[in-house]
């Protein structure tokens, strides 16, 4: 099922509430006036409060799923339903807000 294409200004949080940001935006494709993001590039996470009893806050997120039919520069674009794993603790992310005009599969 198609999902909305993720962009650089999307609101993405680790499961503890830390803010995730794209490290390498895709300069070739824009949606809603903002650059899209591709799967292989990690995101950095700032201000992760981490869960009580866990000594390791989230630092980066690596995307494990992305579009299967839409690529840019040979790399899949991230979608609103894409999933990521945070390092060093292995938790996931929540995509809270993204643009709502362009879909991909």
Helix content range = under 10%
> What are the low-pLDDT stretches, counting only 5+ consecutive residues below 50?
none
Would you report the number of β strands?
Answer: 12
Query: SS-based structural class?
Result: mainly beta
Strand content: 35-45%
What string gives the helices and strands in order? EEEEEEEEEEEE
Taking all residues together, what is the mean pLDDT? 94
Radius of gyration: 13 Å
Question: Structurally, how many domains make up the residues?
Answer: 1
Rough shape? elongated
Distance between the termini: 6 Å
State the helix count.
0
The biggest beta sheet is recorded as: 6 strands, antiparallel
Strand order across the largest sheet: 10-7-6-3-2-11
Structural features, described:
The chain is mainly β. It has one domain. It is 0% helix and 42% strand. The strands form four sheets. It has a six-stranded antiparallel sheet with strand order 10-7-6-3-2-11, with no helix packed on it. A two-stranded antiparallel sheet has the order 1-12. The radius of gyration is 13 Å and the shape is elongated. The model has no long low-confidence stretch (mean pLDDT 94).
